[in-house]
Specification:
By secondary structure, this protein is of the alpha/beta class. The chain has a single domain, classed as Rossmann fold (3-Layer(aba) Sandwich). Helices cover 42% and strands 19% of the residues. It is built from 11 helices and 13 strands. An 8-stranded parallel sheet has the order 3-2-1-4-5-6-10-13, with helices on both faces. α8 packs across α11. The structure holds NADP nicotinamide-adenine-dinucleotide phosphate. The site of NADP nicotinamide-adenine-dinucleotide phosphate has 26 residues, from α1, β5 and β7.
Length: 292
């Protein structure tokens, strides 16, 4: 039995779907029972647990051959909230006795700080290393699906905002379906010892992303490079809480400083091109129901 948290999210849903496609037994963990119904219909067991509820999560993980865990980003949770959730996840992994865990992390998570929200993934990795489970750390480059965040400005104003000084520097981007596939394969064939796998993918500049998103939407998008001092106000104006806006600016700074690089045991190359992901992203924005 393979237990998948975040099963209604990008990577968790792709991992659970890939395991089911291969005929493997899957237990999806959801916090809203209604969101588990679709997984039950596809033949998965469903457990209901909040990642912050140590007892419920321990029960959901118990008896698994392997488990996938992630630290969801909550724009309102702050530093203490993310660290507490990471501690709850690591505590449940340890208490459940699950032997192999695949954890979703990010390039840059080897660094203690200076990476914005990625420092919480560092904290999660460190907590999981103390549990006794064999750990497969999947440190991803940027998700291609992060372009979802640009959809409101693109569709309403024809603008693609760039919170970075260099709109022409190529950055690797991976499709979350590729991440989910690797998670599933790791669960089915665990390593002998802990390993850190960095995910690389096709690289795109922000200007190229804007062109490809514009093509998927059928309209030209104007690339607007937001000056550094205007980034936090721009984010808060779009509804991002101010503390988290500072985290996102720190993340962009870390990228600009070259801190978000592979430094693990091996690199896995993801191949899905951004054009393919954008077709799904735009289709899901028009009709969210069949997206997952
Ligand atoms: N964006 C990037 O470019 C990037 C790159 C590298 C790594 N990452 C990391 O990837 C992770 C996000 O992965 P993702 O995009 O697959 O996630 P996602 O699509 O944002 O989905 C989050 C999942 O977690 C569930 N969830 C949220 N809070 C929960 C809680 N308290 N208890 C139980 N379940 C909860 C959600 O369930 P509901 O349906 O109930 O909400 C959902 O299934 C983050 O750790 C992020 O730092 C992101």
């Amino acid at each position: 039995m393979y237990t998948i948290t975040g099963a209604t999210g990008h990577v968790g849903s792709a991992a659970a779907a890939e395991l089911l496609r291969r005929g493997a037994p899957v237990r999806t963990v959801v916090r809203d029972p209604a969101r588990g119904e679709a997984w039950a219909a596809r033949g998965a067991e469903v457990a209901v647990a909040d990642l912050g509820d140590g007892a419920a999560l321990t029960a959901a993980l118990r008896g698994s051959d392997g488990a996938f865990v992630l630290l969801p980003t909550d724009e309102t949770a702050g530093d203490a909230g993310h660290r507490a959730l990471a501690d709850s996840i690591a505590g449940a992994v340890g208490a459940s006795g699950v032997g192999h865990v695949v954890v979703l992390s990010s390039v840059g998570a080897d660094l203690v700080e200076g990476t914005g929200p990625i420092r919480w993934l560092h904290h999660l990795e460190r907590g999981l290393r103390r549990t006794g489970a064999t750990l497969s750390v999947v440190r991803s480059a940027h998700f291609q699906e992060k372009v979802e965040d640009a959809l409101p400005a693109a569709t309403t104003a024809g603008v693609y905002p760039v919170l970075d000084d260099d709109p022409d520097g190529p950055v690797p981007m991976v499709a979350t379906r590729d991440v989910g596939e690797l998670v599933a394969l790791s669960l089915l064939a665990p390593p002998q010892a802990d390993e850190v796998v960095d995910l690389d993918g096709p690289a795109y500049s922000e200007r190229q992303v804007a062109e490809l998103l514009g093509a998927a939407l059928g309209r030209h998008l104007e690339v607007v490079v937001v000056p550094r001092d205007d980034r936090v106000p721009t984010l808060t104006a779009s509804g991002v809480p101010e503390p988290f806006a500072h985290e996102l600016v720190a993340l962009a700074d870390a990228g600009a400083q070259g801190l978000l690089r592979p430094r693990g045991d091996r690199v896995h190359r993801c191949t899905t091109p951004l054009e393919v992901t954008l077709r799904h992203v735009v289709a899901a924005a028009v009709d969210p129901a069949p997206a997952r």
